[in-house]
């Protein structure tokens, strides 16, 4: 996965991170290197999968992702905002304690 898009923390723009379908990302965070790969499927309905690895070993997999689901990547919480078939998964950074009018809801 070393030929993916390299992003450094923070890797969101405007609080959103767009993971493109089958484009590997390398994330540097707290002295560790994480590999992130997103896939989007159509059956039985449109849903996404995000696989996370570190040091060549899998550390997490989130399957069946649809808008509203929350996942943890490199110690941060992300809410799935959009899943577009064979195109992308858009994540919104979840900031605990923010008011709802900021566009990011609090998770407790």
Structural commentary:
With 108 residues, the chain is an all-beta fold. It has strands spanning 5-8, 16-20, 25-29, 32-41, 47-54, 57-65, 70-73, 76-84, 88-93. The protein is 0% helix and 56% strand. A hairpin with a 5-residue loop joins strand 4 (32-41) and strand 5. The strands form two sheets. A five-stranded mixed sheet has the order 1-3-4-5-6, with no helix packed on it. A four-stranded antiparallel sheet has the order 2-9-8-7, with no helix packed on it. The protein starts with a strand and ends in a 15-residue tail after the last strand.
Entry keywords:
108 residues, mainly beta, five-stranded mixed beta sheet, four-stranded antiparallel beta sheet, 56% strand
Q: What pattern of helices and strands is seen along the backbone?
A: EEEEEEEEE
Gyration radius, in Å? 13 Å
User: In what order do the strands lie side by side in the largest sheet?
Assistant: 1-3-4-5-6
Give the terminus-to-terminus CA distance.
34 Å
Low-confidence stretches: 98-108
Instruction: Give the strand tally.
Output: 9
The helix fraction, in percent, is: under 10%
Mind summarizing the main beta sheet? 5 strands, mixed
Task: Give the helices and strands, then pairings.
Layout: E1 5-8, E2 16-20, E3 25-29, E4 32-41, E5 47-54, E6 57-65, E7 70-73, E8 76-84, E9 88-93
Task: Summarize this structure briefly.
The chain has 108 residues and is mainly beta.
């Amino acid at each position: 996965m070393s030929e993916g898009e390299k992003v450094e923390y923070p890797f969101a723009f405007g609080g959103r991170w767009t993971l493109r379908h089958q484009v590997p990302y390398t994330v540097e965070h707290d002295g560790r290197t994480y590999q992130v790969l997103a896939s989007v499927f159509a059956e039985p309905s449109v849903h996404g999968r995000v696989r996370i690895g570190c040091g060549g070993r899998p550390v997490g997999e989130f399957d069946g992702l649809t808008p509203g689901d929350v996942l943890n990547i490199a110690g941060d919480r992300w809410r799935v905002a959009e899943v577009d078939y064979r195109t992308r998964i858009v994540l919104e950074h979840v900031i605990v304690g923010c008011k709802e009018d900021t566009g990011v809801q609090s998770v407790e």
